[in-house]
Amino acid sequence: MPEPTYPDIPAVERVQPRLTLYQRDDCHLCDLALEVLALARVPEFDSVFIDDDEVLEQRYGVRVPVLRDEASGEELDWPFDVGRVRAFLRR
User: Fold this and answer.
1) Closest CA to 67 of 52, 82, 51
2) Secondary structure of residue 56 in the 3-state scheme
3) Given strand 19-23, what is the order of strands in its sheet?
């Protein structure tokens, strides 16, 4: 199936999400992180659940939720608030 075209939107605005939120199923802190991201009006991001992934469990097991900028590799560990998220995105 061909990718849709969006002639009215510049190519810069059509990039894939550069942010990933690493989280767990049934995680109260992860739910809070999602609320903070919504309040901070974070652009589109991917959610990755670390449950059942041994490599991600090793890396993020005690740190989730973690917001990662895939372009730079920088990560923002919980706890974070709207101000910290916005500062993280401005880097």
Assistant:
1) 82
2) helix
3) 45-49, 19-23, 66-69, 75-77
Three-state secondary-structure class, residue 53 = coil
* Dihedral over Cα of 8, 44, 71, 81: its sign: positive
In this structure, are residues 36 and 79 in contact, taking their beta carbons and an 8 Å threshold? no
Mind listing the pLDDT tens digit for each residue in 6-55? 555 554 444 556 999 999 999 999 999 999 999 999 989 999 999 999 99
pTM score = 0.80
Tokens 């109260």 belong to: 28
The DSSP letter of residue 62 is T
CB neighbour list of residue 29: distance below 8 Å, 6 or more residues apart = 64, 65, 78, 79
pLDDT at residue 1, rounded to an integer: 53
